[in-house]
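Action item from last week, closing it out:
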Amino acid sequence: MILCAGNNETFPFAHPIGVGLCESAVNLTRLVLMQPPEFLLFIGSAGSYGAFEPLDIVESKAASQIELSFLMKKSYTPLSENVIVSDERVSRETPLSRFANRERPIIVNSSNYITTDFEWAKRFNRLGIGLENMEFYAVMQVAKSFSIPCGGIFVVTNYCNERAHDDFVAHHGEAMKRLQSYLKKRMPNLETFDS
């Protein structure tokens, strides 16, 4: 099953699940209960913590939910797991097969807030966290709860800096075209794919 956030990121072959951690978790849980999938593939935009450039396409099967306040030592979390890596059953049968040879997947961090300080963004990068997307951690958490292999394909729209929103707006149209083109090449049967 292919998923997207919705609002200004919709695709004719993907189920929109909502924006942010809460909407996406609730709506995806409902969707999975009604129509259990073999795997989940989330597609959408992401901000870069510095390792990727705008309009790069990045695949991932790992997500984190780490807030800036944690990096600043201004908060702690009682969560036992704030990084999730998809089950290794994500294999040749899914669109994410190339991760079988990857030692460490690219981690995508999620928050309901967008990072706008590039110095702090680089700290995420040093921790091995390359991108920021508002929904992916929630998608991975739902997938884990239902034992569904999961991954994501992201197009970078901006760096996580003070120009994040302006660059997101400026690159968004071209980014969505590139993402859709990439998906059609990666999954040639996308038109008939059971999303």
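Closing note: The longest strand covers residues 150-159.
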